[in-house]
Amino acid sequence: MSDEIAENGTANGDVPEIELIIxxxxxxxxxxxxxxxCQEYFMDLYLLAELKTISLKVTTVDMxxxxxxxxxxxxxxxxxILIDNGLAILENEKIERHIMKSVPGGHNLxxxxxxxxxxxxxxxxxxxxxxxxxxxxxxxxxxxxxxRIDALxxxxxxxxxxxxxxxxxxxxxxxxxxxxxxxxKYFVDxxxxxxxxxxxxxxxxxxxxxxxxxxxxxDQDIINHYxxxxxxxxxxxxxxxxxxFTTSIPIDVNDLNNTE
Length: 260
Known about the structure:
Order of helices and strands: EEHEHEEHHHHHHHHH
Strand content: 5-15%
Shape: globular
Number of strands: 5
Distance between the termini: 44 Å
Number of helices: 11
Largest sheet: 5 strands, mixed
């Protein structure tokens, strides 16, 4: 088990310490793994740590070789696991509800927006269909879905999905967009069209934020996440590769800023 501390939430007596246990890399067993839910809740809690409503401790656990104390405490439960004042919350829906109702400041992250919620809902399932094998019809369905998100962002002219401050929907969407970029390109040469300018502007803003960059897994971990799902083998010495993080924007950033 290895620890990462979100620096924004320095431990003191004034704010509660929240611990988030996340899956470690399936390559080296130490750095952040490519679990979408782990990153989503990491981002939620990191934003609260930045606001100093909580102190955040993040612990990575190698699920291929979990330490004895983890097995003793949590048996076969897989992360994410949230621990608040000794209370362990083990299921995704319960973690979300706990952040919203019981973590100081958490209620501010959870906004009601049916249009955004429905747009995000089926995005990941479309990616998984694309990754099974190269199929233009499935790729077209994923592109169309991304196009609808692009259209919403263009129409609203906001920095984030529901306004100019981040909310839970951004913490849910951006990790999925990163998986689409990295895994889509690697497995089936899928790319987010450069014509989706509002979506790229959105991603550009997200790449500037510590909440995303501190929680984001390496490209290699995202790729290996899907290799394991498809029972593909790692390349030789893959664990020795220097981790890379795709955060480039394929269109002119100055032009993006001028469109705001």
